[in-house]
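Sample pair:
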Amino acid sequence: MFLDYFALGLLFFVALVIFYGVIAIHDIPYEIAKKRNHPQQDALHIAGWVSLFTMHAIWPFLWIWATLYREDRGWGFSNGKKRELILEGEVRELMEKVEDLNQRLASIETPKTDKVSENTTEQQPKQEV
């Protein structure tokens, strides 16, 4: 009689451990993504839950998706920080060129407006009624 209850308890315990293990395993890609500060960690978490219904058929792809991104180098296809520095330099150069062009444009427009205002003041006294 005792062994029957022990076997039943052991059966429930094993079923519970397997159930919890499956749920814990499906969350591994999300934990990796969270640790790496992955930009799509919410999508990975939802896809992990979907993988429960597909019997973990997509789970290896989730693992790959989560491990591709690293905060220090981005997606791993190129050096992300180096590219950012290059782009920052290019943006800085372009901003300097735009500022230079704005100054040139301001210096070109200023004399024209002075000449126009001089011509209008000269024409007003000539028109006497």
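The chain has a mean pLDDT of 84.
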